[in-house]
Structure formats: structure tokens, C-alpha cells
Automatic annotation (TrEMBL):
InterPro entries with a match to the protein in the record: Cyt_c/ubiquinol_Oxase_su3 (IPR024791), Cyt_c_oxidase-like_su3 (IPR000298), Cyt_c_oxidase_su3-like_sf (IPR035973), Cyt_c_oxidase_su3_a-hlx (IPR013833)
Keyword Plastid belongs to the record: no
Protein name per UniProt: Heme-copper oxidase subunit III
Heme-copper oxidase subunit III family profile domain location: 1-195
Residues that span the membrane, as ranges: 21-43, 55-76, 88-110, 130-155, 176-194
Family matches, as Pfam families: COX3
GO molecular function: cytochrome-c oxidase activity
GO cellular component terms listed in the entry, alphabetical order: plasma membrane
């Protein structure tokens, strides 16, 4: 019994360490986006600023999708903690599909911008549109980390490495996923209201 307590304490300590490292990583990502949004605000005085374009429909759809993916990831974690492994797997796969759809609609948003002749570089580019591209590209680059962690969680869950008492991998991945969802909603609202 004493050895088991030591093992549980070791797992708890390991979990706290991993969560702290993840928090440091997420804070550094916040700093990247804080820098981008600060640059965006400072650049509003430039003569090539375009404020009267409509946000592409694909970016609006992707925002709804990423919010839904947060919900499905939450239900996946909750199901696995209750020992409902099949339900948890369905929610994990749904989250993965929604994540892939999010990326698809983000890039589709680029197509919509191009069709409106709003490009990030070149003589016809504007600083506001360039920032929108930067927001999307940097966010999607970080979201790929979330997709990789989600693939890992699905694989580990398939191999039955998680149970109601051992969900650290899912918790870490879900924390990062929810964080990236929050970042996108923040960026979308920021750009939508401050363009």
C-alpha cells in the first residue's frame, strides 16, 4: 500500500511538472500573438489600411467549427474519465475531424481573400490584410501541434493506455487544444471589431 501511494505521488508530481511546462509554452504563444495584435493596432494609422472589407465566410465557419471541437474534446475527456472508452473514442475522432475541417476552412478563407484581390504581399497588398494572413498562418502552425497531440491521444486511447485514473495525456492535449481555440476566437473577434 505504501509503494502504491509513492507511485501515485510520483504520477501527481509528474503531472504537475508537465502541466507547468505546458503553461510556460502557452504563455510564450500568448506573447507571440500579443506582439502581432500590438503591431496591428500601431499599424492602423498607415495610409494603406483597409477597414471596409468583409470577413471571409470561411473564417466565420472555421470559428464555429473550432468552438464545436472544444466541446467534443471536453466530452471525450469526460467520457474517458467515466470509463466510457467507446464514447470517448467517438468524441476524440470527431474532434480530429473538426480540427482538420478548421484548417481546411482557414485556407479556404485565403482563397476568398484572393478572390476579393486582398493579398498579403506585392504592390496591391495592404497592411491590415497582411496582418490577417499572419494571424491565420501563425495560429494554424501552432494548431498543428494540437493535431499531432490529438493523433497521439487517439493512438494511446486505442492502445488502452488511458483509464479513469490515468488521463494525464488527454488532460495535457485538451488544455492545449482549448487554449488554441481560445486564441483563435480572440484573434477573430479582435480582427473583426478592430479592423
Amino acid at each position: 500500500m505504501e509503494n502504491r501511494m509513492t507511485l501515485e505521488e510520483e504520477q501527481a508530481r509528474k503531472g504537475k511538472t508537465y502541466k507547468m511546462l505546458l503553461w510556460f509554452g502557452m504563455i510564450s504563444i500568448c506573447m507571440i500573438f500579443a506582439g502581432l495584435t500590438s503591431g496591428f493596432i500601431v499599424s492602423k494609422k498607415r495610409p494603406d489600411w483597409v477597414a471596409d472589407f468583409n470577413m471571409p465566410n470561411s473564417l466565420i465557419i472555421s470559428t464555429i467549427i473550432i468552438i464545436l471541437s472544444s466541446l467534443t474534446y471536453y466530452f471525450a475527456k469526460k467520457s474517458i474519465k467515466k470509463g466510457l472508452n467507446s464514447t470517448g473514442m467517438i468524441f476524440l475522432i470527431t474532434t480530429l475531424v473538426l480540427g482538420i475541417l478548421f484548417v481546411f476552412f482557414q485556407f479556404n478563407g485565403f482563397s476568398e481573400l484572393y478572390s476579393m484581390q486582398l493579398v498579403p504581399t506585392g504592390p496591391s497588398s495592404t497592411v491590415s490584410v497582411s496582418f490577417l494572413y499572419a494571424f491565420v498562418i501563425v495560429h494554424v502552425a501552432h494548431l498543428f501541434g494540437g493535431l499531432i497531440s490529438l493523433f497521439t491521444v487517439i493512438y494511446n486511447h486505442y492502445k488502452q493506455k488511458y483509464n479513469p485514473a490515468q488521463t494525464l495525456g488527454i488532460e495535457l492535449s485538451a488544455m492545449y487544444w482549448h487554449f488554441m481555440d481560445f486564441i483563435w476566437v480572440y484573434l477573430f473577434l479582435f480582427f473583426y471589431f478592430f479592423k
